[in-house]
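Hi, here's the filled form for the chain we discussed.

Project: internal
Contact: R.S.
Residues: 240
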Amino acid sequence: MCSIGVMNTDLFQPLEELRVQVHADRKINPIPPIAVLESAQELLEMIDWLGSEALEDKRVTEELIYSDPAINKRPPIREKLALRMGSRTLSYINHIYLLNGILKKGLERTVELLKEHGLDEHIDKANLESELERIKQVFEPIETFRHKVAAHTSYSYPKKDDGLLQLNSLLNLTPRPGSEVLGGKSFMGGHNGDIPLVTILTYEADTESYFGEWVELYTKVLTPLQKKFTGAKGHINLDN
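And the returned structure, exactly as it came back:
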């Protein structure tokens, strides 16, 4: 069961257009590295597929319940939906985490390459560090949920986590039946151990918000090069 989502899967296209090819020492260095944007695009499309499947599953299940109210009295239909939502959301969180890490490393490598070729004079290092710290804070809930639940539960790798957080990390692998939000369960209805609330159903807006931040930052780093070497069609020849 799958449908086409409405997420902007062309989110990274502007960065493809801003990429420069630096010719130096008889080598050509694509900046940003080609593998970074290709991997980012693939993960973005995977996220869209996961999210659109979740939305379609929820729609079909709700239509089934509406068409036959007696079905709603059978707990398995909602419990099975909760399991499917849990599975997709765990994958979604890991995909978001992977993509964030690739874009972070990719930007670091982009700046390194520009510095190697003496093309980084336009970069405000202090401002760049400030922007990176701000993006880190935006992704903090995703990172926490990934570390405590989605990649390996706190129960399996507790580090310094208390017993309550370890137990709640197991409870939050799936949402409550009738809900699509993970992170809302807790032992005996108490504190959930600071596990963030996450849902895949808002993936379109969330993904554009999360990764739009990276697109803006890459754009700030790359646009001055396009302006400086206007007419070069993305090629900067330092061998001349």
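Let me know if anything looks off before we file it.
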